[in-house]
Every structure is written in structure tokens, then in C-alpha cells.
Design brief:
Layout (H helix, E strand, L loop, with lengths): L4 E3 L3 E3 L3 H4 L7 H5 L2 H9 L1 H6 L4 E6 L4 H12 L6 E4 L7 H5 L4 E7 L11 H5 L11 E8 L8 H12 L3 E2 L4 E4 L5 H15 L2 H10 L6 E7 L20 E9 L10 E8 L11 E4 L5 H10 L1 H11 L10 H9 L2 E8 L2 E4 L8 E2 H7 L7 H14 L9 H17 L4 H14 L3 H12 L3 E3 L2 E3 L5 H5 L8 E4 L10 E8 L1 E3 L5 E3 L1 H7 L7 E7 L13 E6 L4 H16 L9 E7 L8 H9 L4 E6 L10 H7 L1 H8 L5 E5 L2 H18 L4 H13 L3 E4 L4 H23 L4
Parallel strand pairs: 3-4, 3-5, 5-6, 6-7, 6-8, 23-24, 23-26, 24-25, 26-27
Antiparallel strand pairs: 1-2, 9-13, 10-11, 10-22, 11-19, 12-18, 12-22, 13-14, 13-15, 16-17, 20-21
């Protein structure tokens, strides 16, 4: 019986869902039908086609995870021609009645304090006609993080709203926890939905018996725009309704360089009427660099140069100035049409058309490869290279062989091997640009067959139809409106790193922000409320923990505290405030002068950990907590103490353990009692996290924990074998 259980910290049932969930009633006959039954059913072609499930897939997504999962499910169920939309676009659900929807599948994340994402907010506020979903089977997947209050609240609210409208259950309500990784659970859930809606028998009937074709063709329709420049223009957000003017972009570390290591304080002037509270987040819409746009253009230069030549109005010649000719074509408007089963309609893209390719690549298309996309892309490409094409030279044959090897790596039976293979691929190809630059000669260039030219295996229109949306990034606000209500500031660590395969990565948003010019450039951004809130009163004792840019929200809280102390008559009643901050060395000590000033005016007691200071032992923030464990314990035991940590989730785990040790050593507690005390603080909103952008490290910590638990379980099971 233990076959179907995982050892996490506790046993968890993990049998494949489709082995234990009863198939929907309408497919029960299909699963048990004889071959003769299927043949007779095939004769009723029109009735079977009419009875095919009519599917609506909807999503509410803030960071793109839910939208990407919905898009993958949409492609998996392509045979049934499902509809795909954000929740706002189906507010009221009249579409269910109009299109006679039989299956509604929803994926929704939770944002801020249990709120719906922006593209689901209108839906959440709209009324739904009673019983409009009567007879419609519904499955809901809620995304969230158990590290924050109101875990999956938006998804829970959505599921209840759909149930109140008369929905029937297709699959049990599912929660996916970002704190323990979303890729595996989301993949399992989408496979479950796919098998419930499109069982193998039904798929065989549609594909074979009914001879239904699913050939999809994307075609680009180029238009002309003669008022262009020799180089692609940098897109500006000045016309966006949510744009803010940058008023400050200062380096915070000594000797910082945006091309290498840099941490910056970036401030914006708030539009009239926009307000925030210390602890909120600033959501920034980044732009891909012009360099990335031109790299993409060079990958598809054959198609772009041919389009420019066909247009006949390009003033440049590829032989003399290829980049100028590419730039000219990048500034030409275009739209994409999809033809499927004889029907032609507007392609489902992440940007509105008509648009120029230069603008779409800068503002709307995510060029980064993500873990969840690797299998999709490799599977898609495998279908393109199954047969070797005439006219392929040795180089193309080698690339084909390499792609088939990648396919075998990704689709290994062993989950652990598969995960390792995906990470290895991402290390070598962190962006779609890196991937296509390597395999473009096989996939993205035309093939000559005698005098004829054959279209590229992966033409421009096809890749644009599958690339995901470039989503906004959220940064913890590092200022206080009580200091200056017209200005909001963030602290940005510029990401410039090398992967284990030696491929250089530039963080999209951090590098974009690092290069904006004060008092010149506008950035599209907005305030996002947060559950991360400062102490309720000045008398509350405070423990703050942050490493690197994890200091950001603490600066807002400390600015409020400094202002309160200035206006306070009896400063002796102010609670103690301990700050534990970690950085590499004294050069990396951001906001050093401000913290020194606040220390002198008794705003806080700073404790600084240097991990790479010459002639000094490596010290991290968790080490400082252990060294100061007596003070930490005394504060944690006080009924009004507030604990804050921002930064890497792995560091948060280490600091949690350091606090548990402090309570055990100086509070005379068992581990169970210490953990329970912290849980109580959490329930009282006195233990708060602000952790993000660092899930890779958290997953690594989780994996190490899991390995240890599995090793312990194996040791225990040896007693019975």
C-alpha cells in the first residue's frame, strides 16, 4: 500500500489521479464500448461532432503562471477547439449560455491580501445569473503561497461563486502552493483535466473514425509604414496611463557597475491621487532590450529580409546594411491569421494586432525560458523533425540529432532524471534566443530543394503564437509616504550572472530599470497593496531581518519609526528595534549613512553580517541571530513583538531555525513549543514574510529537506524488510 505515498515531512497520498477518479458519465460508454460499437458510433459523424465537449478555459493571472498553465491546457485540448480567455473577458458568464459550454476549467492565482488578479477583478465583482452553469462541469485550480495570509483565497472564492451558479464538479477543487513549487502539481492537474475531458477513446474516435483534421497554419500579413528609422526605436511608456517619471537612479554600492554588480535606489514621481503605504509593492512593466530584439530579428532574418524585399519600399539593401533592413522591417505593422480546419480567424497572441514586431518584442513577449515551458517546446519541435527532410546538410542533421537527444532527456521516465535534464537545458539555453541561435539553422531558415524553397520548420508566425506574455515584476517599496507622499522608491539588485553552463544572463527588468534616465524616462508601473505591514504602534518591540535588497521594505518601516520618534514626547516608551542585515562587505552596505544616522538617534540597533569581508569569518544574518539569541528570545516572548524578514526564502528558513534555537536555549521550550509559539505569532500577524523572486533557492532547500526525510524513512523501513 505504501506504493502510492510520498514521504514529504509527512506521508502524502500521490496515486495518479486518473487511476482513482471516476470518468465523467458521458464517457463511460466510450471507455467500455466494443470495437463494433465504435464503428457504429463513427457512422453518426455529425451527432458525435455535435456532442463533443464545448470547453471554456479561463484564467486569472498576475505574474503569468496561471495564464501559462491555461495556455498549455488549451494546446493539449486543441482537438476539441476550446475557448481561452481571462476571467474579465467572460464576466457574467453569458458566454456559457451563448456557446452552450459543457466544460469550464478555471485557473486563478491570489494576489495581495487575498484579492483577485487584475485580469480577474471585473469578473469577481460581476453578478452571475443563478443556475447559468447548470449542467456544466467545472474544475478550478487555485494558485497561491502558504507563506502568506489568505492562501488561495481568490481561487476559493471563484470556486464557491461557480458552485453557487449551479456548476457540477468535473474534478475536485485543487490548491497549488508556490512555496513548495508549482510546476509538478500544475502539470499533474492539467494532465488530469485533459484525461477527464478527452479520454483516449474519445480522442481516437475524433482523430480516426471521424477523420477530423487538426492542421493549424499561421500566416503573417505585413502592412506598410514608410515613416521609419535606420534603427529600432526604444519604446517609451510616456503615453501609458499608468506611467511614472523617474526622478532618481542612484548607485548604492561602492564601485557598482550596471554591467557587473550593481544595487540601485530608483525613485518615481507618483501621479496625482496615487497613494501607498510602507510595505506595499511597486509593479513594474519591463521592456526587453534593443539588443534582444535584434538578436531575435537575426534569427529570422531570411523571412524578415524577404518580407522587406517583397514590400519594395525599403531604402536599404541587405548586402550593404543588413541590420538597417531588418530594423526597417521590424517597424512595419503586421497581423497574424490562424487557419484551422478550413476556418480563418485572428491568432491568439499575447499582444494586440496590428502591431510592429519591434514594439511587440520589447513590450509584450517574454523571451526567457521557464521550467514549465521546456517540455512543451521540445515536444512541439520533436513533431517538426520526426522525419528527416531532403536537402538537409550534415550540420542540420547534427542539429536534428541533438534535438532528439534533448527530447529523450526531457521525457525520461524517472522524474528526478527529468528535472535534472530540464535544469541542464535551461542552464545552456536560459532564453528562447539562446535556443534558437543554436538550432535556428535547422528550424528558422528556409530549406532549398533544387530550385524551390521550402518554408522554415518553425516560421516566425508559429513561434510568435506560442511565446508567453512579458509580465510585470514586483519590487518591495523602500520609502514611506509619511516622508514624501509624492515620491515612491524601490531598491533594485541588477542581475548579471552566468549559468553553470557558462551562459551569461541579464535580468530583464533590473537591467531595464538600471538604465533609465532621471527626469527623462517614464516607466509603466503601479502600486500593489501588500499584507506586509509595519508595527501597529511605536511601543511594539521589533526584529527586522534582511540581506541585500531584503532591506528595502525595512527602510520604509524605519523611516516611519524615525518620524514618529521625532514627534514623540516620551521616547522611552518606544519598543526596542533590532535590525539584522547581511551583505558581502562594507562596500556593499546599502543605505549605510542612513542606518548610521538612525542608530545615533536610537531609531534602531543595527547588527551587520559580512559574508566576504577580508580577514573576517563568513557571517550571515542567521549567524547574528544565533549570536544574539538571548536578546532575540527575550523579544520573541514579549506579547507585542513583531518579526519581519524580507529576501531569500532559504535565508528565511535558516532564520526561522535560528529563532527556534533561541527559544529553546533561553526560553526553556521544546522544539514543538518553540515552533508553536512562532505559529501563534504568525496567526496574530506578528511574524511576517516578504519573500520573492527567489523560488529557485527555496526549491533547493525543499529538495534537500525531502532527501533527508526520505533517507530517514528508508532507514526506518529497513526494520521491516
Amino acid at each position: 500500500e505504501m506504493r502510492d505515498f510520498k514521504v514529504l515531512p509527512q506521508y502524502e497520498y500521490c496515486a495518479e489521479h486518473w487511476l482513482t477518479v471516476k470518468p465523467p458519465d458521458e464517457f463511460a460508454l466510450l471507455e467500455s464500448a466494443s470495437e463494433l460499437d465504435l464503428q457504429s458510433l463513427a457512422k453518426e459523424k455529425e451527432s458525435v461532432l455535435g456532442a463533443r465537449p464545448r470547453i471554456l478555459i479561463v484564467y486569472g493571472s498576475e505574474t503569468g503562471t496561471a495564464e501559462a498553465a491555461a495556455s498549455r491546457l488549451h494546446r493539449a485540448l486543441k482537438l476539441l477547439k476550446p475557448s481561452l480567455a481571462c476571467l474579465n473577458d467572460v464576466a457574467g458568464l453569458n458566454i456559457v449560455k451563448d456557446k452552450r459550454i459543457t466544460h469550464l476549467v478555471a485557473i486563478c492565482s491570489t494576489f495581495n491580501r487575498g484579492e483577485f488578479p487584475g485580469n480577474a477583478k471585473i469578473f469577481s465583482e460581476s453578478d452571475i445569473e443563478p443556475d447559468i452553469l447548470k449542467g456544466t462541469k467545472v474544475a478550478v485550480c487555485a494558485l497561491g503561497s502558504s507563506l502568506y495570509p489568505d492562501f488561495c483565497k481568490a481561487g476559493i472564492t471563484l470556486e464557491r461563486k461557480l458552485a453557487d451558479a449551479g456548476a457540477q464538479t468535473l474534478a475536485s477543487f485543487t490548491k497549488v502552493d508556490d512555496a513548495t513549487g508549482t510546476d509538478g502539481p500544475l502539470s499533474d492537474w492539467t494532465q488530469l483535466i485533459q484525461r477527464l475531458i478527452l479520454p483516449p477513446k474519445l480522442e481516437d474516435i475524433i482523430r480516426s473514425n471521424l477523420n477530423v483534421q487538426t492542421v493549424t497554419k499561421h500566416n503573417i500579413d505585413w502592412q506598410k509604414q514608410l515613416d521609419v528609422t535606420e534603427e529600432v526605436k526604444r519604446y517609451t511608456h510616456v503615453d501609458s496611463p499608468d506611467c511614472m517619471l523617474c526622478v532618481c537612479n542612484d548607485e548604492l554600492i561602492k564601485g557598482g557597475d550596471v554591467e557587473d554588480r550593481s544595487t540601485r535606489k530608483i525613485s518615481f514621481k507618483l501621479p496625482e491621487g496615487v497613494k501607498y503605504v510602507a510595505g506595499d509593492h511597486l509593479s513594474v512593466r519591463p521592456l526587453n532590450s534593443i539588443d534582444s530584439v535584434m538578436r531575435f530579428a537575426r534569427i529570422y532574418k531570411d523571412e524578415l529580409l524577404e518580407a522587406a524585399a517583397v514590400a519594395g519600399d525599403c531604402p536599404f539593401n541587405a548586402a550593404d546594411n543588413e541590420d538597417a533592413m531588418l530594423a526597417w522591417q521590424l517597424q512595419q505593422p503586421f497581423s497574424i491569421k490562424t487557419t484551422e480546419d478550413g476556418e480563418t480567424f485572428d491568432a491568439n497572441l499575447v499582444f494586440e494586432t496590428p502591431a510592429t514586431l519591434g514594439e511587440a518584442l520589447q513590450t509584450s513577449i517574454d523571451l526567457t525560458l521557464h521550467v514549465s515551458q521546456v517540455a512543451d517546446y521540445i515536444g512541439l519541435i520533436k513533431g517538426l523533425i520526426t522525419k528527416e527532410m531532403p536537402g538537409w546538410d550534415n550540420d542540420k542533421q547534427k542539429l536534428r540529432k541533438r534535438l532528439l537527444q534533448l527530447h529523450n532527456m526531457v521525457f525520461e521516465d524517472s522524474k528526478q532524471t527529468r528535472e535534472s535534464s530540464v535544469n541542464k537545458i535551461l542552464s545552456e539555453f536560459p532564453t528562447i534566443l539562446d535556443f534558437l541561435e543554436t538550432f535556428g539553422p535547422l528550424l528558422c531558415t528556409e530549406t532549398k530543394q533544387g530550385e524551390d524553397k521550402k518554408e522554415a520548420l518553425l516560421p516566425l508566425a508559429d513561434i510568435l503564437s506560442v511565446l508567453p506574455r512579458l509580465n510585470a515584476r514586483s519590487y518591495s517599496i523602500s520609502s514611506s509616504p509619511n516622508d514624501d507622499p509624492s515620491i515612491v522608491s524601490i531598491t533594485v539588485g541588477v542581475v548579471n550572472v552566468k549559468t553553470s553552463a557558462g551562459v551569461f544572463i541579464k535580468g530583464v527588468c533590473s537591467n531595464y530599470l538600471a538604465r533609465i534616465q532621471p527626469n527623462e524616462d517614464f516607466v509603466s508601473c503601479g502600486i500593489r497593496t501588500s499584507s506586509f505591514r509595519g508595527p501597529p504602534k511605536l511601543s511594539s518591540p521589533v526584529i527586522m531581518v534582511g540581506a541585500g535588497t531584503g532591506l528595502a521594505p525595512m527602510m520604509g518601516f524605519l523611516a516611519d519609526r524615525a518620524l514618529e520618534l521625532e514627534s514623540c514626547v516620551d521616547t522611552d516608551k518606544a519598543g526596542k528595534c533590532l535590525l539584522y542585515f547581511g551583505c558581502r562587505n562594507t562596500d556593499d552596505h546599502i543605505y549605510n549613512s542612513t542606518i548610521t544616522k538612525w542608530n545615533k538617534s536610537n531609531v534602531l540597533e543595527p547588527n551587520i553580517a559580512f559574508s566576504r569581508k577580508p580577514s573576517t569569518p563568513k557571517t550571515y544574518v542567521q549567524d547574528l541571530i544565533e549570536q544574539d539569541s538571548k536578546n532575540v528570545c527575550q523579544l520573541l516572548l514579549q506579547p507585542e513583538t513583531c518579526y519581519y524578514i524580507c529576501g531569500d526564502a532559504r535565508v528565511a528558513d535558516f532564520c526561522f531555525e535560528a529563532c527556534v534555537k533561541a527559544l529553546r536555549a533561553h526560553g526553556n521550550m521544546s522544539r514543538v513549543a518553540a515552533v508553536q509559539h512562532i505559529k501563534q505569532m504568525r496567526a496574530q500577524n506578528r511574524w511576517q514574510y516578504d519573500l520573492w523572486g527567489i523560488i529557485v533557492h527555496f526549491n533547493e532547500a525543499k529538495h534537500e529537506f525531502k532527501v533527508k526525510k526520505e533517507a530517514g524513512a528508508k532507514h526506518w523501513l529497513k526494520r521491516f524488510t
